[in-house]
Specification:
This protein is α/β, with parallel strands linked by helices. It has ten helices and eleven strands. The chain is globular, with a radius of gyration of 19 Å. The chain starts with a strand and ends in a 10-residue tail after the last helix. The model has no long low-confidence stretch (mean pLDDT 95).
């Protein structure tokens, strides 16, 4: 399969499996990522997704051969946009595990995830201007939120890349690890997320994302509504009960 889905405990590992083409996104990859996210969202046993690429490249972005042959309109999906993910409405957190270059659309896919783990082999950039193109899958909007404005502008205008350590220093990357360890490090980060109440994690993820563009008063109203929704769940009662009984909570996601 060109995109695989494997559940490992509470984590669902989604792999772009097109290493011979540097995991470039074609129509099949976009449809595969969308289907994998559908599966993650429907899988009650999976609480966090991990998106990675087979081989030595996370993703080189759009398949330019397909674009040149007239198939560029098929690099996305109706619900997910480019790669089946960049505008996808979803509830569960996804961590990008980047163990090589994530450039152009590949960088935009990583930025569409909620957290990024990168090995020292990773590089990030939007080189579209080098080909008389524009990064049109959210990179020009998300990069200035992930990096200082002037650095994001520099990368966008020069088409140059930064390495994982630079990206980590400026807050774009959450964890830097040794080459070959990105998937394991992402799983460790996912396990830290999964130690918490899954429904609260999903509400919190949504509030952090929406709050970035909301008025503060509106954002507080959204948080109040999220709290009311959680109050009707089993895990709402389990948290205080476990604290009183001095034991680890047993979350059910219900």
């Amino acid at each position: 399969m060109i995109v695989t889905y494997e559940r490992e405990g509470r984590n669902a590992v989604i792999t772009i499996n097109r290493p011979e083409a540097r995991n470039a996104v074609n129509g099949e990859v976009a449809a595969g990522i969308e289907a994998a996210i559908d599966r993650l969202e429907a899988d009650d046993e999976a609480w966090t997704g991990i998106l990675t690429g087979a081989g030595t490249v996370f993703s080189a972005g759009a398949d330019l051969k397909e674009v040149a042959s007239g198939g560029g309109r098929n690099l996305g999906t109706e619900r997910g946009g480019f790669g089946g993910i960049v505008v996808r409405d979803r509830t569960k957190p996804i961590i990008a595990a980047v163990d090589g270059p994530a450039v152009a659309g590949g960088c935009e896919i990583a930025l569409a995830c909620d957290l990024i783990v990168a090995s020292t082999n990773a590089r990030f950039g939007l080189p579209e201007v080098k080909r008389s193109l524009v990064a049109g899958a959210g990179g020009l909007q998300r990069l200035p939120r992930a990096l200082p404005f002037n650095l994001a502008m520099e990368l966008a205008l020069t088409g140059d890349t930064i390495d994982a350590e630079q990206a980590h220093t400026h807050g774009m990357v959450n964890v830097v690890c040794a080459p070959g360890e990105a998937l394991a490090a992402a799983a460790a980060l996912a396990d830290r997320v999964n130690a918490n109440a899954p429904l609260a994690v999903r509400e919190t993820r949504n509030l952090v994302r929406s709050g970035a563009t909301q008025d503060t008063v509106d954002a507080i109203g959204s948080a109040t509504r999220a709290m009311a929704a959680l109050a009707a769940t089993d895990d709402w009662a389990e948290g205080p009960r476990a604290f009183i009984e001095k034991r680890p909570p047993v979350w059910t996601g219900r």
